[in-house]
Amino acid sequence: MIAKLLLQNLIWFGGMGALLFVTAGTLHWPVAWIFLLIFFSAATGTTLMLIRHDPALLEERMKPLVQEGQPLWDRIIMPVFVVVFCVWLALMGLDAVRFGWSSMPLWLEILGQAGVALAMWICYQAFLVNTFLAPVVKIQSERGHQVVSSGPYAIVRHPLYAGALLLFPSTAFALGSWYGLAMACVLIAGLVARTVLEDRELHRHLDGYAAYARKVRYRLVPFVW
Fold first, then answer.
1. Which of 112, 115, 122, 223 has its CA 20 to 30 A from that of 42?
2. pLDDT confidence tier of residue 224, bands split at 50, 70 and 90
3. Whole-number mean pLDDT of the chain?
4. Residue 48 maps to which CATH number?
5. What percent of the chain is predicted at pLDDT more than 90?
6. Position 223 in a domain
7. How far is residue 166's CA from residue 31's CA, in Å, rounded to a whole number?
8. How many distinct structural domains can be found in the chain?
């Protein structure tokens, strides 16, 4: 199982690297290598933590993006989101390197790399406490699905999405792409839409979620929304 998971991470690393470096037209793009190193070190660390502490969640995370019991809207959103994400990576390779449309100061790229690291840490904290953090929206009744209110869930109701909210613009800054930053707004809009729909689904079908939502008022950003 460990070998399969590490291979899966390696395939993701290769796929994202290909989207970036092929469109850039060169492997000489240091900030892209740093971004990939941060992203996949964090992803691998999370995977190893789940192998040790929550193999049931890891098994859930390995299931396909379209599943039984998943609402129709999520079956549509997830594949579209993956396609847009891939186009976004390719755009940044074209923008920041091949055609050089964008010029971003070094301090912003450094800030972006720090933002990527912080975003991945936030996601790690969500995985650490929520054993029901499936890749798709569904009520996992077979696993005794219940509300999680500890860790980052005591601050916002969807901390994994909060991490992604930081990850998208941070990645554009890290890779030095203003066009990537503009397209990150499209990803953020999709993320916000999924948050609203998922929150509605949990209110309707997960026992105790309405009471939890009254206690933890903010979905993604403390004191904002």
1. 223
2. very high
3. 93
4. 1.20.120.1630
5. 80
6. no
7. 18
8. 1
Express each pLDDT in 108-157 by its tens digit: 999 999 999 999 999 999 999 999 998 899 988 888 899 999 999 999 99
Count each helix (H run) and each strand (E run) in the chain, helices first. Answer: 8, 0
Taking 80 as the threshold, does the pLDDT of residue 9 lie above it? no
Per-residue pLDDT band for 1 (boundaries 50, 70, 90) equals: low
The closest of 215, 8, 31, 217 to 116, measured between CA atoms, is: 31
DSSP structural state of residue 26: -
Domain membership of residue 205 (yes or no) is yes
3-state secondary structure (DSSP) of residue 155 = coil
Q: Give the separation between CA 190 and CA 159, rounded to whole angstroms.
A: 16
DSSP class of 143: G
In the block, tokens 């995370």 appear at: 61
Q: Is residue 122 part of a domain?
A: yes
Residues 173-184, mean pLDDT to the nearest whole number: 98
Asked if residue 222 belongs to a domain, the reply is no
Stated as kind and residue range, the H or E segment containing 211 is helix 209-215
- Cα gap 194→105, rounded to integer Å: 33
C-alpha pair distances (Å), 127 with each of 51, 93, 204: 12, 30, 23
CB atoms within 10 A of CB 208: 11
